[in-house]
TrEMBL record:
Pfam families: DAO (PF01266). PANTHER family: D-AMINO ACID DEHYDROGENASE, SARCOSINE DEHYDROGENASE-RELATED. SUPFAM superfamilies: FAD-linked reductases, C-terminal domain, FAD/NAD(P)-binding domain. One of its GO terms (biological process) is D-alanine catabolic process. GO terms for molecular function: D-amino-acid dehydrogenase activity. This is Glycine/D-amino acid oxidase (Deaminating). Keywords: Oxidoreductase.
Amino acid sequence: MAATGVVEPMKSNTGRKKARLLIRIPRMKETSKSATKSPRARTAFFMRYTVRHEKAVLPLVSFHGEKDPPMKILVIGAGVIGVATAWALQEAGHTVTLVDAREAPGRGASYANGAQISVSHPQPWSSPRAPLIALESLTREDGPFRWRPALDTAQWCWLTAFLRECLPSRHERNTRAIALLARHSLQVLRRWREALGLEYDVQTRGILHLFFTPRDWETGRRHEAELRELGIAARAISPAEAAEIEPALAPVAAKLCGALYAPEDESGDARRFCEEMVARLRQAGAEVLFETRWSGWRLGKGRCEAARFEGPAGAFELTAEAIVVCAGVDSPRLLAPLGMEAPIYPVKGYSLTAPILAPERAPTASLTDESKRIVCSRLGNRLRFAGTAEIAGYDDSVRPERIAPLKRWAEVMLPGVADLEAAEAWAGLRPMTPSGVPLIGRSPMANVWVNTGHGSLGWTLACGSAQALLARLEGKTPPGLEAFPFVG
Ligand SMILES: Cc1cc2nc3c(=O)[nH]c(=O)nc-3n(C[C@H](O)[C@H](O)[C@H](O)COP(=O)(O)OP(=O)(O)OC[C@H]3O[C@@H](n4cnc5c(N)ncnc54)[C@H](O)[C@@H]3O)c2cc1C
């Protein structure tokens, strides 16, 4: 069968109206290294050779017979969002430079998070129940939520906006947007994992959401119906079934009211993922710079001419045709000079990572205690316990009294399974928007893009957000995400 083509109108990243010829060339009868040498050679190759199967490989070719020229793109921030974005761009043929202030990738909020790929929890924290949960929690020393009021207008503005997003209609709309992105993201993560052979202590035994009070279980049952409607696999199960799926739960099954099992969900170490992706980026020819801090912009008319950095060898500028800001909780500081007020505020969380002492009693399914709001994931020969939400500004120090509930939970739920004395305690700042929906799209500057504000679900949403950002940057609507509220 010969290659087939359709004409598709599109808008380029520069805003120019163009038409493209979409060539369908499934599998080449003949492969040739020369076909991948240059866009022109590739196009000629695609046009010349016949194809055998109708499996879509879809190079986009302009009327002039050339692929859109690859762009030089700068990505700022090498957490899960930045490395995923850099990879999506590099994979699409662009020339990528990834820059981070820290000494290695994944040293911000992505360092030791709960490790869950939790498609089955698309509900943002701003929910109709959130104000009550927060009030109840404030009266308990070990409550999952803590607020340290500060003389900080950003904090008060964010809290006010958060309360607005708790309205039922907004919560529902935000849940739908996150669900769309989460489902897409899992597919992209799986594709990359397989194609790149990524190793990051992945577990694919699903997530068990555990409910320990009748009131919480009522919410769990409602979530089951809601998830079904959103096309997310999760089923309500009895305590006995939960213990059957995850035998490590047997000793506490009697205390359970019920569980939701999401078999498609996964877990894995986000920091290791970041390191693996940086290795693949370097192999693919991307430039990656660490200990290099963004320090300002050189602005032109409606665009950013260059980004300024402080690196080990001093100050310098980088120019690029496009720039993507993935700087986590620091994103608002980078975006403010561009005229963009990013509604992102840090919500601090804690984790404890302990070596496993009794592997036969350690869970392999990831667990979410919905009553205490603590998660537990197995990462190879370690167990990670994570949780708590603290609004305390940009302080990321570890407070022992906030680690204590995680330790207690591990002692009660999985006694003697992990060496808690040898555990690594960590605190990180979730880059949270009031709605829980990340900011993906174009900034007020024509060539500056944002992919940030992923809050409590950045690891879950990283790969799909990266793919979505790539599509927007190339002037396309990511398939399946037509209803997502992109910015810009
Ligand atoms: C306790 C806890 C548990 C969590 N559990 C889960 C979970 O189970 N599942 C899930 O999906 N999500 C979870 N999350 C959320 C998830 O970890 C975050 O959403 C995600 O890590 C955010 O990634 P990011 O790349 O946007 O930010 P970061 O990982 O913080 O990366 C931002 C990067 O930008 C760099 N940067 C900042 N400023 C500059 C500058 N001026 N110049 C250069 N570089 C700069 C930083 O050095 C950093 O490396 C959890 C978070 C916490 C804190």
